[in-house]
Specification:
alpha/beta
């Protein structure tokens, strides 16, 4: 089969297409014939070596396709099942492995492309809005990167839960998408300081929660927008890692809370995974918009990474074998 391999960490050029043996599923695993692959910033971090993995390796944890081979001890899944996961192994490939406890069966009405676009970012948006800070009517949230894959889903879920949302975006086109998703206001941070504009719109210290996937360039300013006892949710670092912060800063700015969540801790059990995916699939049926921005062939994984890192994307980026 063809797979993308990383032998040395570095830039997008380190993503090399190779012919490798098809993987054999072990106990509790199935092999999936991959139809669509989600591209995420975590794979950029793996490629760069920021999150170290033994090399060589095939990146990618999010994909959708058809069960091809069932491993020993597997029940509840069979060849031919349409499935998706956000926690697979070696997803940038024509065939990949998935642990059955992290695998969900797809309804026939859902395309593989939509499923691959929904799993990781949808589950992330779900836990951010329902668990990390359980949004409720009257809450006010700031969502950075509002026109990204997570941002668009998070705004829609926040809107469903009755929260008021201010998003940030870099262009008027992205702002239009964020408003269409349900954002009450969108700040063009490329044209104005997002803190000053957010304060002009809602007043000082008006936010219960800030959802920040950008990191280095937004984190410190975002703290100043929070109400006393507000929560900073740092769930990404597309602009670079955040410098260490003293707990005294949180005290001085209003007894603030800070969390750095990861998806794995919010789908730690199969029941939690199924509860979240059941919600997401129902919401898709009710009109939740899962926006695919661009699709690249598997061999063009480097181009997909370049596009993701440009921060020009407006929705999900997919690879298709």
């Amino acid at each position: 089969m063809l797979a993308i391999r990383i032998h040395e960490t570095g830039g997008p050029e380190r993503l090399v297409t190779e012919a490798v043996p098809e993987p054999a599923p072990r106990d509790g695993q199935v092999r999936v014939k991959v139809a669509a692959i989600g591209v995420n910033f975590v794979e950029v971090y793996h490629r760069q070596g920021l999150y170290s993995l033994p090399r060589p390796f095939t990146p990618g944890a999010e994909f959708a396709g058809t069960v091809d081979v069932v491993g020993p001890g597997v029940s509840g899944f069979k060849p031919g099942d349409r499935v998706a996961t956000a926690n697979g192994l070696g997803g940038y490939a024509e065939y990949a492995l998935a642990p059955v406890e992290k695998l969900v069966v797809l309804p026939g009405s859902l395309s593989f492309e939509t499923a691959a676009a929904l799993m990781l970012q949808g589950l992330t948006a779900h836990y951010l809005a329902t668990s990390t800070w359980a949004l409720k009517p009257g809450d006010t949230a700031l969502v950075h990167a509002a026109a990204g894959g997570v941002g668009l889903l998070l705004i829609q879920i926040a809107h469903r839960r009755g929260a008021r949302v201010v998003g940030t975006a870099s262009t008027a086109e992205k702002a239009t998408l964020a408003r269409a998703a349900g954002a009450d206001h969108v700040v063009l941070y490329s044209q104005t300081d997002f803190v000053a504009e957010a304060e002009r719109l809602l007043g000082p210290k008006a936010f219960d929660v800030v959802y920040d996937s950008v990191g280095k360039t937004t984190f410190e300013k975002g703290l100043g927008l929070l109400k006393p006892r507000g929560l900073m949710v740092l769930f990404g670092q597309s602009s670079g890692p955040v410098e260490p912060v003293s707990p005294q800063v949180l005290s001085r700015m209003g007894s603030l809370y800070l969390t750095r969540p990861t998806l794995g801790d919010y789908v730690a059990t199969r029941q939690e995974l199924l509860t979240r995916t059941t919600d997401l699939l129902a919401w898709v049926g009710e009109g939740l918009d899962v926006r695919v921005d661009k699709t690249f062939p598997l061999a063009a994984a480097a181009d997909a990474h370049r596009y993701l890192e440009s921060r020009a994307s407006m929705g999900k980026i997919l690879l298709v074998p």
